[in-house]
């Protein structure tokens, strides 16, 4: 399929609708749908969510973890949460992209684990994706929305759900045999409970021993579980969750930055600004400004 301005119109209308994408076992938070007829260079940055991009035309480069990949017609690539990346193109790229994440509080454990596999995929960039299911559903969704087909909200939600299902199927490494052989650790339930508690209490201090006490285990045991199951320390996870929540509030609300720092549990606005800038590559104020600019394009 060739580029059409309907992609831009469809993306704008989807952003205006802001429809929740909820199912029996999953809820997807879409931060933005977008389509650019000319996307040029951007600076190295990272998101707290996934960003999926598809190239219709043009030449460029995608830099991911200091590795450089060629961009051309038919390339699809997935930027994973907290993965520093950059897009370069001197003459511009015709591309569509979408930013999204899983709402873990409204999703089943199986879906949460699938998104964890998506985050760790090694197959995050593919060529010749024109005829793939994910691209066909994506472009159909944008065009049908732009052409004002008599779709009910449920119909659009169904298309969106099918699209994100196809994303999982496309990018999760097939050699992992996830669907057939995935084994769950006995610690998974504890990790999930800890994550939920952290998510709901980000404004609090969230000390290791306090969360461990809530789960009726020792702080040492909880620390070991986080390292084993998530591959990161308890404190690192807390910091990233605070930054992720702050990013959402900066994007989706007009709350003062000082209030956002308090909601997300940072002791001072200076510390909040320092941590956020280190993690995201932009200060909170610049992050909000850039998001607003993208929304008005």
TrEMBL record:
InterPro entries: AraC-bd, Homeodomain-like_sf, HTH-like, HTH_AraC, RmlC-like_jellyroll. Keywords: DNA-binding, Transcription, Transcription regulation. This is HTH araC/xylS-type domain-containing protein. Residues 192-290 form the HTH araC/xylS-type domain. GO terms for molecular function: DNA-binding transcription factor activity; sequence-specific DNA binding. SMART domains: HTH_ARAC. The lineage of its organism: Bacteria, Bacillati, Bacillota, Bacilli, Bacillales. The keyword Electron transport does not apply. It holds the Pfam family AraC_binding.
